[in-house]
Amino acid sequence: MSSTESPTGGAPATSPRAPDKGLEARLQQTLPMARLEPQRLPGCGSLTLALINHDFPTGPLPPDVMRAVIARPAYWAFCWGSGLGLAQRLLSEPHWVRGRRVLDLGSGSGVVAIAAALAGAATVVACDNDSDALLATMENAARNNVTLLPCADLAQVPDGLDIVLMADVLYDRANLPLLEAAGRLAHEVLIADSRIRVLPDPDYRSLGSLEALTMPNLGEFDEYREVRFFHRRRPRSALVFEGSESRPAHG
C-alpha cells in the first residue's frame, strides 16, 4: 500500500467502561497530574483505549516528575502513531491476521494486539517486558471485549506462530536485534514504524506508508506523522531449521 490517510477525531469517547483505577494509579506514580480517559481511535471502528487525558499540559514538567518519567516512562498511556497506523491497516486488510496465530511484540497500550483480535486472528499473544504495559494491554482488551494471551518475556512466547507484528519498537537502535528475534519466532513479520526509513535486513520489503498521529497528540514532531510498513516472509522450512538450533528450549 502506498496511500496516505489523514486520521480525524481524537476526542474522548463515551464508553460504558470507566478506566481501571489501579492502572490510573500506576500512571500517577509517574505523572501525578495525569488521568486516564477512554478515547476512540480514528479509522479503527469502535476500538477504544484508556489513554492519558487529551488535555494534559504540554509545558515543562517539574524536576521531580521529569525524573519519574525517565525512571518509569508511561509510554503505554499513549497510542503511538505507528501502532495506530498498523491497527488501521489490520482492520482494513484483515487477511494479514484472520485465522492466524499472532504475536504483538512490544504491545504498549495493546492497540495492535486488539486490532488483530478484532480482525479475526485465531489467537493473539501480547508481549511486553513492562508490567504496567501488560496491565494496560489487558485492561484495554477487556474494554474491547477481546481475549489476548499476555507474555512478559520472549523466551515464554508459545511455538507455532504465523506472524509477528511490531509497531513503534525500533525507535531505539538498541532494539534492532529484535528483527532477528522476530524472524525466529514466525515465518512472517509485519512492521510499522515512523522513526526508521530503511531496515538493516535486506529481506524486508517496503509496503508503503500512511499518515497517523500519536493519541493524544501532545506536540509530536511532524516528521513522525508518516508511518512506514515493512514485511518479510520466509519459507517455513527455513524457520524450522533455524529454530532447532537457536530458539530457546521450552519446558
Backbone CA Rg: 18 Å
The overall number of domains is 1
Task: Determine the N-to-C terminus distance.
Answer: 41 Å
Q: How many strand segments? A: 9
* CATH architecture name: 3-Layer(aba) Sandwich
User: How much helical structure, as a percent, in the residues?
Assistant: 25-40%
Silhouette = globular
> Roughly what is the average pLDDT, rounded to an integer?
86
CATH superfamily annotation: Vaccinia Virus protein VP39
- Give start-end ranges of low-pLDDT stretches: 1-15, 240-251
Report the order of strands and helices.
HEEHHEHEHEEHEEEH
Strand portion: 15-25%
Structural class: alpha/beta
CATH topology: Rossmann fold
Number of helices: 7
| CATH hierarchy class name | Alpha Beta
Strand order of the largest sheet: 5-4-3-6-7-9-8
Largest beta-sheet characterization: 7 strands, mixed
Produce the secondary structure layout:
Layout: H1 21-30, E1 36-40, E2 48-52, H2 63-71, H3 81-92, E3 101-105, H4 111-118, E4 123-127, H5 131-143, E5 149-151, E6 163-167, H6 177-185, E7 188-193, E8 205-211, E9 226-233, H7 236-246
Helix pairs in contact: 3-4
